[in-house]
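I had to read the description of the data format several times before I understood it. In essence, backbone conformation is discretised, so a fold becomes a row of integers matching the chain in length. I therefore recommend that a typical entry be quoted early in the introduction. For illustration, here is how one protein appears when written out as sequence plus structure tokens.

***
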Amino acid sequence: MTVVVASDLDRTLIYSAAALALTMPDARAPRLLCVEVHESKPLSYMTETAARLLADLGDEAVFVPTTTRTRKQYQRINLPGPPPTYAICANGGHLLVDGVSDRDWHARVLARLADECAPLSEVQDHLLRTADPVWVRKHRVADDLFAYLVVERELLREEWVKELGEWAENRGWTVSLQGRKIYAVPGPLTKSAAMDEVARRTGADLTLAAGDSLLDADLLLAVDRGWRPGHGELADADWTAPAIRALPERGVLAGERILREFLRAVRSPR
């Protein structure tokens, strides 16, 4: 039986120091493994137990890292277990096969974006004109597919985010606020479409997924079974669906729980 497991990474399987949510006494905190270094500094972690579970999962299923990160940002991550044959980057804009972007897939994505939503240049211009320099720290374009801002969250006006979401929706785009980043992503640019392609290529009998943000909702709805942690945009909205299980764990321990759920489903698919 072929099982495809497509999981979001940041704040689902891996966590920055700020997102670990280690609320227990220090002496009882789990041992952590650094899985990402950036500019010579440790950046992302998972528990050592989660690392062992992920290695086991990679041996028993087709594990597909699934992220809104660009290819360059994804390649900084050093996950335990066998190197994944497939990875989904840029929210589905790139399907990596043995680390290389599939040209045919990327061309199909670009064609859909040109046909179905406003161009990136229009959205980027709107962000530059309306975002307040008081709380914006960086403007970024990711792989020429979507845009995002890095902000000072405590200074950000929530009303502006809501207004941006309404403006973007009318142009076929989606807005997602994740930590210190505000993403503006074309509606047709989805993790689920890329995951469906992997399922088709592998002949998957069962598909599983996990994610914490609005940009993961389409992925969760597209699989046979899914999980979300007790933190993030989906938890804040109390979002769920019939085949989705909402887990109570928050922070890095949620990543460990998600991997246990994946393995249980792989080993007892019925």
